[in-house]
Write a structure and sequence with these properties.
By secondary structure, the chain is of the alpha/beta class. The chain has one domain: Macrophage Migration Inhibitory Factor (2-Layer Sandwich). The chain contains two helices and four strands, in the order E-H-E-E-H-E. It has a four-stranded mixed β-sheet with strand order 2-1-3-4, with helices on one face. The chain is globular and about 40 Å long.
Length: 132
């Protein structure tokens, strides 16, 4: 159950934001074995000047449409899966009209014991909540 935080500039049209969110979910499903129904995304829109992203580091050309995707998920994906995830998200975003330099992705991994999905219960291996 990954949690994706998608930060976008407010100048983006809603359809383009939705396309990016779809690209992120598609990438997780097709490269990281995430079940299709496990979609958890937080989309935040920022006014001009509120997303401070170096426009050229390292040798990129970010535009005013640059977005940041942060994905928090359980450890265990291979380097190859992560590379394919980056490529899949970028390809879908490019198909939606984004520049390839405008999609920045950061992955953060942790363990099941670092999650509570509700009821204050740990999602840890030995403590998964039993649903009524």
């Amino acid at each position: 159950m990954p949690l994706a935080r998608i930060s976008v500039p407010s100048l983006l049209l809603p359809a383009k934001v939705s396309a990016l969110a779809d690209a992120v979910h598609h990438g997780l499903v097709t490269t990281c074995d995430v079940p299709d129904k496990n979609r958890f995304q937080l989309v935040s829109s920022y006014p001009s000047g509120s997303m401070i992203l170096d426009p050229t580091f390292p040798n990129f050309r970010r535009s005013a449409e640059a977005c940041v995707v942060e994905i928090l998920f359980l450890e265990g994906r291979t380097t190859e899966q992560k590379s394919r995830l980056f490529q899949t998200i970028a390809a879908r975003a490019i198909d939606a009209g984004f520049s390839s330099d405008d999609i920045m992705i950061a992955l953060v991994e942790n363990a099941p014991t670092d999650w509570s999905l509700g009821r204050g219960l740990s999602f840890g291996k030995d403590h998964r909540p039993v649903l009524p």
